[in-house]
Amino acid sequence: MNGYAGKILRINLTTQEVSTLNTADYEPWGGGHGIGSAIFWDLVPYKNISGFDPGNVITIMTSPLTGTMAIGAGARTEVQGIGVQSYPFEWFTRSGLGGRFGPMLKYAGWDGVVIEGKASAPVWVDIRDQAVQIRDAASLWGKDTQETQEIIWQEIGGQNGYGDWLSVGPEETGRRSTQRPAILCIGPAGENLCRVASIIHDAGNGSGQGGFGAVWGSKHLKAISVIGTGTITVADPKALIEARIWAMENFMFALEDYDTSKAMWATMPSNLRSFPLPLVTWTRSKQSRPQACMGCQAGCRSRFDPARGNESSCKESYYYTPSWLVKDYAPSGDEPDPQILAADLAQKYGINVAELETGILYLRDLNKLGVLGPGKQIDCDLPFNRLGHSEFIERLIEMITYRKGVGDDMADGFTRAAARWGRLEEDQKTGMLNNCYWGLAMHYDPRGSLEWGYGSILGDRDINEHSFCPLYMIPTMAAQKPLSAEAFVKLFSDRMPPFQNDPLMLDYSDDNMYSEHICKLVAWHRYYTRFWIHSALFCDFQFPDFFNWAAQGYRGITGEGEPKFFNAVTGKNISYAEGIEIGRKIWNLDHAIWTLQGRHRNDVRFADYIYDTPNDFAFTMPVYKNGQWQYEPVGRRLIDREQFEAFKTRYYELEGWDSESGWPTRSTLEALGLSRVADELESNGNLGAE
Amino acid sequence: MEITDKIKTEGRSISRRDFLKASGILVIGVGFGNCAIINPIPAAKGYLLVDTKKCQGCLTCMLACSLVHEGFESLSLARIQVVQNPFANFPSDVNIAQCRQCVKPDCLAACPVGALYIDRKHGNVRTVNAEKCIGCKSCIAACPFPPVRPVWNFLEGHAQKCDLCAEARFWDKRGGPGGMQACVSVCPMKAIQFTATVPVQTGDAGYNVNLRDESWGLLGYTTE
Question: Among partner residues B86, B154, B170, which is closest to A202 by beta-carbon distance?
Answer without folding.
Answer: B86
